[in-house]
Structure formats: structure tokens, C-alpha cells
Amino acid sequence: MRHVDGLSDEQLVRRLMAGDSQALAALVSRHHRPLLGYLYRLTRGDHPLAEDLVQETFVRLLRQDSYQPDRAFKPWLYAIATNLARDAYRAAARGRAVCLGDAPLPDLPDAGPGPEERALVADQARAVRDALDQLGEEYRQTLLLRFYQGLRLDEIAVALDIPLGTVKSRLSVGTRRLRELLTTGKEGAVR
Amino acid sequence: MTGPSDTWPLDSAGHLTEALRDQGLDDDEIAASLPALAQLAAWPAPAPAAADTERLLHRLQPLLPATSPVRQALRRQPPAAVADLRALLGLVRTQVSLFRPTFWLSSAAIVLLGVLLTSGNAAAPTALVLYVTGPLLSYLGVATAFRGSALGLVEFELACPPSSRQLTLARLVIVLGYDTGLAVLGSALIGVSGGAELSALAGHWLAPLLLVAGLSLTLSLWLPVTRAAALVYLGWLATIGLLWLSGNTPGAAAFSPPVETFLGGAGLLFLAGAVAALPAAIPPGCPIADAPRAPTGAPANLLGRRAVLGVAVTTQNGFSHSAAGTGGPMAIEASPITSPRAAATPRNNPLFAVFAWELRRQAAGRFGWVLAGAAFVFFTGLLWFKHGWLISLKDGGERVLVQGSSALGLVHEVVYVELLLFGMFLPFVMAEAVARDYKQRSHELVMATPIPTWAYVWGRYLAGLLTSLGFALELCLAALVANLILHLNDSAYPLPSPGALLLAWALTILPAAILLGSLSFVLGTLWPRRATALKLAVLVAWIMLVVLGEDRFPSWYPYWNPTSYGLAQASDAAFLQRYQAQAPAAAGEAERAALSRSLQDEPPDLRPWALPHLGLIALAVALVALAATRFRRFQNVRE
Asked: Which pLDDT score, from 0 to 100, does residue A55 have?
């Protein structure tokens, strides 16, 4: 796989569409972890669902032959993932599929602190999760892509299929609301 | 398990600040937001283990696009854009092989004909001749280049990496490039012989050529391409004929250079429009299997499915399709030995069955009918234009005009115009009567049927011969019609005598058609894999017979020469001898002209040629009998 390591995502996906298995391995290795992180947070910490969605995202990627070589790959990948998560939410809302939002927090790595400190860290994580959970869906997606996944504003616009100005306004409103939630502990979602 | 530290920008306050500034936040907002956003790092996400990634890969591997190495290579090097001239030229190079020698030779022959009819003849209507022959090149080129549907090859064409537009462009480059080259060459030849300016001549060729090509291609979006090209060409001929009859001679407004420029430009626009419409007509990747099937005989077109590069080639009736197109393996289904229709035939003679089957196959093909119609129009027009010959008395002092519609003139027309060209056409009709099965890989299948070998060979021969004689009879009719029109337009030309015409035809065209057709058939049957080369050999031999003339051969040769040049020259000599003897007694030009017309109307004595030409027919039949005995049923089986 060494000869594909230096290739860009776009070059890899072109090879992937031609049936190159090494390109698939390189793309999965490169994006499995960040994609899992995004979907884990997007599903409010539902790890099994996030794993399923990661797999389904890659499956959709392989089945789509509509990829245009001049199109950036990462926004395209996150667009697929976001749409899949949205579909999962809608299915959950109809009570047919999964129950979201009650997933336990993951175990933290054993960095050496005592039980009290670990409990404190877990509380902070829960607070962040709850704060994000209280934001509207569109604000949460935008903030996750920006602050966890590190996507540029234009990439977020492509991934969410919204204008750049909308990205900026969502980030502005979402950031302010998140700040209020995290610093004051007030509740209330931006709806 | 991992924290968010592996993702930008949460790994440092600097990156976070930079990100917030990008979002348009001012310093106060950034300072207020930083502490809250830094808390996001407190919610870590799980990191997949290497084994998890491996498992995911294992599940995804079966979903990889199942593509062959060839397809992968093609995808890595997709067909270049049309704008890429090198790619287009490469495609042109591959497409050149689609054009058979008949196309190259026929196009050259058409131009040569135009040159022969106009060069050195100041009275010849040069523009008119070129207006007729130039578009004929277009018709031939368009019908040849886009014959894929008729050959049942559209699926292959659509399966090729180049798009339909690229293929069309490449073929147009070939056809129009070759035709333009020929037209310029022909113009140069006419110009050298004092015809007119090169640019004016090239305009006469190219303007109608481009217009007919553009209109044909455009019309082929709705009609089968051969029908579209034929309709446009016939429409063009009708227009020219009407203009000509209404007095718009070359040099008048209807044929002026600005009009020609306009017509050529319009042709180019039509070509561009047709090419631009192609992708809409055949979307790339169009699933052929899902395409609607055209019923047999139904109009098939580019939008509808069977024209320039049409989609649905498969017809519901295999027999009709194969008969209308290329024969091929499907023809076996229609074998008279096995088909219900043959079983019901009262005359279950195998020779009759093969003969009838072959005739049905030929009759079902559109091309033959179009060709017959075009040949009639062509020869009628040709004889209409070339209706007089100036021949010299032996002392060279006087030249006498032989009128085409006179008894002597009919011999001229039949020998010098019709037979000359018809002889070049015959090898292409007859040589492949058997060889076609080899070319279409259906020979073994046909031979696996219980058809006796002799019936197969003789049946194919008789069917081909009948077709050839049908064409020959058409020439007789064309001569009659052309001279009838000539007589109606100019009373100086006598009413053509059907008896004299039929006699000349029976003694010249008929034996030559049987001999040449039989010879071509024999050669193509005994050496089917070399049929193309043998056709050309017969063609060259025929031209050599014409070029060599009569002088360098023994005295018996003119009677046996199948070109009948000896017959025509002897008729001329007999006429001149009588004219020279009686002309001194005539007073004045008018009386000599009347004497000439009177002598020309006397049927020439052709009896000395009857026996030799019957001998030629007997020789032809003997050759075919020999071929029938020598024909090996399975030539590729080594014993």
C-alpha cells in the first residue's frame, strides 16, 4: 500500500472507482477514525450506531459512481455520513429503528488520576454532550464539522449543501449559544 | 479511546482563535468564546482499533467495483476530450479501417466521372455536373460512415469508450477530409484543362457537398441514415433540375459564389447542429437492453433507435433483420430447407430454394433498392448531360456530331457511358455472392444445412446474375427515358427507337454483364478470403481493356472484346463511310446535317458481334460450372 500513501484523497477515490483495493485500504485507514468520531458525536455518543453508520458511509461511497474527479472528497464523504445520520434520526423519530441520546459515555483512558478526578472528567464530558444535544440539529452538525473535524467553511457548505453565509451564521449563533450553555449552565436549545 | 486532540483546531488555543477569526468574530467575542469551546475537548470519541479497521475493510472488499484490468486501464486513461486534437486524430486513425476499399474507389470514381464529363469540353455545363456529383460524394460518405445500425454493430459502437459525438466527429473528419481532397484535386484537373478558376470549381464541388452532408446528418436524427441521405440527395437533384429548367444557368444568381458560400456555411451549421444533438439522442451509458425495440421495417432513426449510431438494432424478426442488413447467422433461421415457408413451397427443388432465398434476402435489403433508384437517376442524368459525340471523318477535315437519341448515338451511349461504368460496378455485385458467408462467419452454418453444394453455388449465382441483369435492364430504361426527355426538349434529337436500343443493349451490355459477373463470381467463390482483392483485380482488368483499345490486338479481338469498343468503332466507321460518300452531293450545311441525322438513324449492322458475344456468354456459364465442381464445401477443414 506504500505507493498509494502519498496520493490525495481525490486521487485515491479515482483509483477506488477503478476497482483498486489498495486505494480502498488507504482511504479507510485515513478516514475511519475521524469519521467514527464525527458520527459518534452526531449520534450523541451511540457507539454501535456510529460504527454502523461508518460502514454504511463507505458502502455508499463504493456504490456511487457519480463522484466527479474535480470534486473535493472530504466534504462529499461527510455529506454522505451526515445524510445517513439524518435518516437514522428520522427513522428513530418514527420509532422504528434506534433509540438515540441515552448512550453511556465511553470509558476514558486510564491516565493515572484517581476516581474523583475521573468522575470530574466524565461530568465535563457529559456537560459538553448535553450542551451540544440542546442545540438544534443544524447547529450541532455545523459545530461538529468545524470544531471537531476541522473542516473549512467552504467544505462545511458543501458537506451540508448550504450557502457559505448560512454556515457563518450557524457557527456564529451556535457558538454563542454553546458558550451560554457551557458557561452559565442555562438550559434551552436554539430551535 | 481518544480525545479530540487528534483533530484540528482543538489542539491549541491558537488554532481555535484563528478559526473563530475566520468565522468573522471580533476579539471580544473570541475571548468570550474560547473558554467554552476549549471545553469541547472534554468529550472524547472512541478510536477504532486496527482490528476494527481491518474488519471494516474485509466487509467492504466485496463491494469494490468489479472491473476488468482492461476497464481499469481505460478508466485510468479516459478518452480525451474532443478538443484534444491529438486524441481526435488518434480516433480518426482507428476509424479509417471501417471504410472499405469500395468507398475510397467509388468516391474517386465519382470525382473522375465529373472531371471526364467537364474537362476539355467548353460546352459542358461544368457547374451543373459538379452540383450533381459533389453531393453524391456526401451521400456515399454519410451512408458508409454511419452504416453501423444496418450492420447491427451499434452495441459495439456504444460500448466503446469514445462517445457517439466523438465517433461521429472522427468519421466526419475522414469522409469530409477525403471528399474535400478529391474535390480540390478534381477542380485542379478541370482547371488545368481550361475549365475555370480553381476556387470557382472548388466552390461548385464543396458547397453542395457540405449542404447535403449537413442536411443528411440532421435528417438522420429522425430517419435511417441511408434513407435520410438518399432523400436529401434526391431533393437536391430535384431543386437543381428545377432551377436548371427555369433558366438559372451557371453564372446566374442561383449559382453565384455568394449563394455557394451561403449553402456551404449552412451545411456546416447543419453538421454542427447534428453533432451537438447526438449526446441528447444517445445518452452515454444508455442501457441498450432497455432500449425499445424497433419492429421490422419500421422507420428507425437516431432518436428512435436506429440511425446514425442508433440504439436499438435488434429487431423482433431475426430473418428480416439479417436479410435487410448483412445476412449472417440469422440467415440460417430463414434457410428454405428448414423454414416453414420453404416446407410449404410446392417446388421443393434445392436450387430453386436457394435461388428464392437469396432473392428474398436481397429484396428485403433497403440498400439494393436505394442503389437501384440512385443508379437510374444517375444514369438518366448522365445521359441527359452527355448526349452528343463529335467524331471525325477519316481525313480529319470535318467533325460530325453523333446525336445520342439516334440509332448510332444509342450505341455510343450504351458502350461509352453505360457499359464502361457498369463494368466497374459488376464485380461488387457478384464477387461476394458466396464469399459473403465467409466474411460474416456464417459459411460453416450454411454448409451444415442439407443444401447440396451444386444448388448452393448455382442458386447464389443465378440470384446474383438476376440482380445484375436487373441493373442492366435499368440502364436500358435510363437510356430510353433520358433520350425521350432529350427529344421532348429539342426536336433536333430524334425519338429514340426502343428496338435499336434493345438490340444494342442485348449485344453489348448483356454479354458483358454475364461474363464479368460470372468471372467475378467464380473468382470470389473459389478464393472467398481474397474476394476484395479479386474484385479489384477484375475492376483493374476491365479498365485496362478499356484503356488499351483495339489497335494493338489481332483482327478477331474487336469481336470478342467484352467492352464492345470494337462494335462502336465499327459502327462509327460504317456511318462515316456512308456519310463521306454522300456528303459531297449535299448542298450547304443544313443538308449535310440532315444527311448526318438520317444516316445516324439507320440501325448499324451489329450481326458480326452476335456469335462472338454468345460465345462470351457460353464461356461465362462454363466458368461457373467449373467453379461449382471445384467448390469445396468446407475449405478450412484439413483432411
From this structure: 92
- Does residue B561 have a pLDDT over 50? yes
- The answer to whether residue B70 neighbours chain A at the CB level (below 8 Å) is no
Chain A, residues 23-52, CB within 8 A of chain B, namely 24-25, 28-29, 32-34, 36-37, 40-41, 47, 50-51
Q: What is the largest CA-CA distance in chain B?
A: 132
Q: How far is CA A71 from CA A56, A158, B162, in A?
A: 21, 10, 23
pLDDT digits (tens, 9 = 90+) for B392-440: 766 556 778 888 888 888 888 888 888 888 888 888 888 888 888 887 7
Percent with pLDDT over 90 in chain B: 8
Which chain B residue is nearest to residue A169, measuring alpha carbons?
B23
d(CA B329, CA B637): 20
CA nearest B415: which of B549, B287, B591, B265?
B549
For residues B479 and B496, the answer to whether their CB atoms sit within 8 Å is yes
CB atoms within 10 A of CB B16: 21
User: What's the pLDDT band for A144 if we cut at 50, 70, 90?
Assistant: very high
> Rounded CA gap, B65 and B68, in Å?
9
**Taking the CB of residue A26, how many other CB atoms lie within 10 A of it?**
23
DSSP percent split of chain B into helix, strand, coil, nearest 5: 70, 0, 30
- In a 3-state reduction of DSSP, which class is residue B391? strand
Closest Cβ–Cβ partner in B16, B29, B43 for A125:
B43
A20 to chain B: closest CA residue: B64
Chain A / chain B CB contacts < 8 angstroms: 139
| pLDDT, position B117 | 74
Neighbours of B590 (CB within 10 A): 9
- Check if the beta carbon of residue B309 is closer than 8 Å to that of residue B278: yes
Determine contact, residues A182/A127, Cβ cutoff 8 Å: yes
- Residue B338 confidence class, pLDDT cut points 50, 70, 90: very low
- Distance (Å) from the alpha carbon of A37 to chain B's nearest alpha carbon: 5
Question: Which residues have a Cβ under 8 Å from the Cβ of B473 and sit 6 or more positions away?
Answer: none
Residues of A in contact with B60 (CB under 8 A): 24, 28, 55, 58-59, 62
Whether residue B9 has a cis bond before it, omega within 30° of 0: yes
Residue with cell 416453414: B340
Q: How far apart are CA B372 and CA A124, in angstroms?
A: 93
Structure confidence by residue, pLDDT tens digits, B283-316 = 444 433 333 333 333 333 333 333 333 322 332 2
Tens of pLDDT, residue by residue over A25-83, are: 899 999 999 999 999 999 888 888 999 999 999 888 887 765 676 788 899 899 999 99
Of B8, B43, B56, Cβ closest to residue A55 = B56
Q: Residue B475: what residue type?
A: L
CB-based contact B46 A47, cutoff 8 Å = yes
What's the rounded Cα separation, in Å, for the pair B562 and B170?
A: 42
Contact B1 A153 (CB under 8 A): no
Backbone angles phi, psi at B400, to 5 degrees: -115, 135
> Which of A93-97, B304-308, B402-406, B561-565 bottoms out in mean pLDDT, i.e. has the lowest?
B304-308
3-class DSSP state of B392: strand
Q: Does residue B9 belong to the interface with chain A, where contact is any CB pair within 8 Å? A: yes
CA–CA separation, B452 vs B337, rounded Å? 11
Q: With an 8 Å Cβ cutoff, is A136 touching chain B?
A: no
In the numeric block, the cell 438518366 is attached to B380
Choice among B20-34, B68-82, B140-154 with the minimum mean pLDDT: B68-82
What predicted TM-score, i.e. pTM, was given to this entire model? 0.41
CA-nearest residue to B12 within chain A is A147
Segment among A172-181, B120-129, B151-160, B420-429 with least mean pLDDT: B151-160
